[in-house]
Amino acid sequence: MTGAMLAQVLLSQHPSLRLAIVEQVAEPGTDQSTKAPANSFDSRSIALAAGSVELLQQWGLWSEIAANACAIQQIQVSDRGHFGKTYLNAAEFNRQSLGQVLEIEWLGALLYPKLEKFSAQGRLHWFRPDRIHNLQTSPEQQILQLQSGVEITAKLLIICEGGDSPTRQLAGMELTQQPYSQAALISNVGLAETHQHIAFERFTADGPIALLPLTKQRYSLVWTLPPQQAQQILQLPDEQFLQQLQQAFGYRAGVFQKVGQRQLYPLTLKYSAEPSRHRVLLCGNSLHNLHPIAGQGFNLALRDIAAITGLIATQLTSDKPADVGCYAVTRAYQQLRQPDISQVIQFTDTLVRLFSNNSRLIALGRSLGLTALMNCPELKTKFAKQSMGLSPILRQQQQLESLLLSGNPAASKSVTTNPITTNLSAKQKAAP
Fold it and tell me: Is Transferase one of the keywords UniProt gives this record (predicted)?
């Protein structure tokens, strides 16, 4: 998903670029070039933060995505069995929504036909089904030897293979792994009444339960559980599954009436301390594979894409001969992405550990923290900017602009034509 999005943005912005996509998965009996791989564009959903939506608008994609997305107008965060809770409302920050929720399969249906048009123009070459068998590095290029026997030379290799990326291993880029002893049970659930565009993050003794509003009055469910318990609940008949979910979550979201196909994913934090090496960049889950708590994963990947496209713009708009994989690009990518990634990993990992702990003292601290967030407008505004992706995108845009201005002042227009909107201010409210 990240690789397809990156290819679309790069080819749309830079007519001089030529790209190759090496795709491991093919769908039997279909047109291999236009069919999105099912294991990348399946029935899961993603929460797009407000900043991510603005990036998609800048890239000319949001107008086609919007019809299948559902707005989040309020987020309710609560800790079951404890008094702490907080609410975020879009109206508090003078916004129409805090973000959007989209079923991933719609992205595949949008992106792959667009990429096929670039193939017809000769600017994009597919190698599918295929995989990278070996890498050879020279000062001027990366040489990719494919399993099929094809050899590709490239100025820059961008690895977007997911958390278990084999090409990352070939490139010698180390991976840190931290199992959570949890599994995420994913499904869509139908409601008896309207969801009113409210998203929930409900912390329970077994793990967080997230409900994200979808079109057609459904919720996308992400239910975090101990692996053995998750496996047992996964296999329950629909009626018993809904009973278990209702008991675990409560009735804040209403009555659950239907449940769709269920899937189970073991949860492990995976990240590389090296976003880049010589003529190689990691992007998306190949660089950072997070716990789904707070829904930060794909939003982080979109900021990876924004950094890559901005840095490539510095080369293609420079007065000097373009080299999209030069040291200046790979070094700057590491400088741009490491602080953002480290902050999000620390944030999500801390949430998992704080809210997966039965200590009464820690539970009291959680409740006090949520209450403070609820009642302090300044703290809430800062938290909202970070959660909506506005602050990290703005910081990255400013850094990119600084890089562009230092290299070629005329190039700054290619990155900063549509700055992210961050003029938020939480309204002071009287206590109820």
Answer: no
